């Protein structure tokens, strides 16, 4: 895919994430946001905190890569390495296979509050700015270290795709948790007096 349509697609997907945040998550109360379908599953807040932890690493890494990036035309083809394809395949939203997360990226049992949603929104706004900066950058330059093994580097385009797909995956997970919470609330016995 060419640079401009590739970045526009990612831009649209980030806006969709912000729309879900605004319409589905932010209107919910703390009980809904902290609900866990099982002891080993994540709550909505834990899903977003996991994404915040990744954003704390990838947003600055992308900013640095973009600042040092070579300029390229907007009609350049965005390429993918084996590492980039593999990284994307593991986190793409359609891949429902459970992935084990790194211990420091696992928010389970964390004390979380509404601040998680605020931080998530800030990271999305930063990502939108990074996508704008990427419009004139060579997206095929290997410049973004992989979080868990920083010697390996993703191409800038691969890293952007990875970040957005990972966020979509966990946003869908958060939406499923909310659906389970709503279903549980609808079937819970109610005391009528």
Automatic annotation (TrEMBL):
Residues 19-174 form the DinB-like domain. InterPro entries: DinB-like, DinB/YfiT-like. Pfam families: DinB_2. It comes from the Bacteria. Gene3D superfamilies: dinb family like domain. This is DinB family protein.
